Amino acid sequence: MLTKSRAIDRFLRDNPDLRNRRFGLPDIGVRHDGKRFNPTVQEIADAIQFYGYEVRDENIATMPDLDLGGGNPICFKPFPPAAKAMEKYAREALMYRYPYTEGADSIRQQLLDYVEKEGFINTEPYNRDNIDEKGLSVHNITFSASTSILYNQIISLISKPYDVVLVTGPSYGLFTIRTERSGADVEVLDLEREDNFLINPIKLANRIDQINESLQQAHHRRLGYVPRVVAFLNANPNNPTGKVMGKKQEELLYQISEVCQKRGVFIIDDLVYRDITYDKDNIAMPIATINKKGVFKNTISLFGLSKSYEMADARAGFVVADEAIIYGIVNKTFQAFDSVPSITGEALAGAYNATEERYKAYDVYFDELRELYIYRYNLLKALVNGIETAEPKYRERIINAVMQYLSSKQKDKKLAYKEMTKLLAGIPMVDFPKNLEPEAGFFAILDFTKIKGMKYKGKTIRTEKDLLIFFYATSRTRFLVGQSISWTYKDELVGRVSYAIDEDKLIQGIANIHNAILLLEPKDDYIIRKNELKDQRQMAKIKVDGWKNAYDLIISSDYLNSLNYDEQAERYEASFEEYKNLVLVAVKGEEVLGYTCYNTTPNEDDFQSELVSIYIKPSEIGRGIGTSLFTETCKELRDLDKNNMIVWCLSDNKNAIRFYEKMGGKNIKTKEVKIGDRIYKEYGYYFQLK
């Protein structure tokens, strides 16, 4: 008989992380196959985890923070025809029967009528009785509780292990994580300024070919099949850039479709932001409306209520695709949760149908909603770049809104006016990226790169985590950083903010950022980065000079005199590929001022990491470069989930001992080391990193 234990105790023993309350996002999770996310996706997951949970402190339960990174649309009434359809169904329908897994044909017919009116056409239909003149039927459509669920089902349906789904960068970070949790791998196609952050078909083709060639070389004859790029996720409008490809970009969309068709790559056309395109004459165009052979069969189109129709709470989305894809999704729905509530379909059919009544309601509703989003974006522009950058028709409204908010906080009207004048002059050193004016949606990218290297209370802002920690420490304000969205330019510091949040919160959040930046101290005349091959000869000279300077009268002169610049440089260059990710350098222009080397797998069992060495150019000692390098090394190790670190130094090196003790190290070990033909004593200094 098994030893008795309470079920809950056994459960908590197996799941210790669930003992503690968690505030913020639920855990990101892992892949279903047990593999780690690939490095690109792991970076995204880490950044989202940091934003949603780790940056928040123990006071969050009693002191709410200000989140500029949320994904909710603007607070606005739900689309009336959809709300009315749900209300009517709840009041009048008989609900004693379980719904069909694929959804009622009557609902699917209304959705079909809508997509056909929008231009969907299948030039290669199956030879079946119920196919209409557009080559489509209700069997080309099914719906579910959100496009996220549909996306998960699609990826698991079309991919095998090691197959790749190509996504754009920037993109919606959680979709990359969903992709890998559903069994495929993710690769990124960078969207670039030179292309106005739109998809370049030539670069798309080259990226697919490059990935396929790499997969063929890596897996040839190992799996019984050759993994490949199976899908390209095309978010139109893009989240988070807000870039739109509409009728004016039809040729570009066709070229994208051609590239994917020729390479056997499905296009997953994510259209959830489509109806909040700001230019109503250039609404995002579904690729499946292109009347060319094979386009429909190669495209999987997603629609939903969450973003555009102000009904995120309804969790409703539908998919349009080839019948075989739809059958596969329906099977997965049945196997996972049986069926979707009919009221979900009624809401979708209320929003997406081909009636004249719906289109009239649509025009009235979206004219008002688009205007509200455009105003909010202008408010954000005024707060970031100054009131003169807002469109003239919005300026008075913006001034009144900011003044009203400040007056509610500050009773002295003169002080409130002075603060308003400061805020509407724009934020120093912050801008929007070039060629990235949102054309849809409600996200904007803010560029903080100019403050990179500046300090707050002696701590340097070098990474996006530093950026988030800084704003949280000064004002409890947070947002999604570039790493969360696969921002193309890795050396830049950017953040994604939403301007769909309440107007007062938007003003407060940007004011928090503005006021925090005024607290920053000037940056050093050097930067800290990973080392490069070109740095090795300078690093070798710094090491040799450092030994001769630090160890004079400590290590035998015979050994010190034997040290050679060229030999050391050759050793560094030969081992560069092995250690390139374990070395940080402080550089001023092209001049290396100092460096650290660390180890993530030291020989000692008691320690998770080791600072192997830290060297500063003798002429630069005393400027704080060593402290900066040490601090950044600790941050790198923390980011690698290392909790502690050991540093060894010669017992006679008094300067090093003073430095490590100043940095908080504790002398806990002693060992002997052979240098040259002599034995020396070393102290081990222990550092707690987390």
Q: Top keywords for this entry?
A:
690 residues; Aspartate Aminotransferase, domain 2; alpha/beta; single chain; globular; seven-stranded mixed beta sheet; Aminopeptidase; 3 domains; 21 helices; Aspartate Aminotransferase, domain 1
Q: What is this structure's SSE topology?
A:
Blueprint: H1 7-14, H2 39-54, E1 66-67, H3 80-92, H4 105-117, E2 141-144, H5 147-158, E3 164-169, H6 173-181, E4 185-190, H7 201-219, E5 229-235, H8 250-262, E6 266-270, E7 299-304, E8 317-320, H9 323-337, H10 342-351, H11 356-385, H12 392-409, H13 413-423, E9 443-447, E10 455-456, E11 459-460, H14 464-475, E12 477-478, E13 480-481, E14 494-498, H15 503-517, E15 527-530, H16 536-550, H17 557-562, H18 565-574, H19 576-579, E16 583-588, E17 591-599, E18 610-616, H20 625-639, E19 644-650, H21 654-662, E20 666-675, E21 678-688
Parallel strand pairs: 1-12, 3-4, 3-5, 5-6, 6-7, 18-19
Antiparallel strand pairs: 2-8, 7-8, 9-14, 10-11, 13-14, 15-16, 16-17, 17-18, 19-21, 20-21
Helix pairs in contact: 2-6, 3-10, 4-10, 5-6, 5-9, 7-8, 11-15, 12-13, 16-18
- Backbone structural class: alpha/beta
Number of strands: 21
Contiguous uncertain segments of 5+ residues: none
CATH superfamily of the largest domain: Type I PLP-dependent aspartate aminotransferase-like (Major domain)
Brief summary of the model shown:
The chain has about 700 residues and is α/β, with parallel strands linked by helices. About 40% of the residues lie in helices and about 15% in strands. The model has no long low-confidence stretch (mean pLDDT about 95).
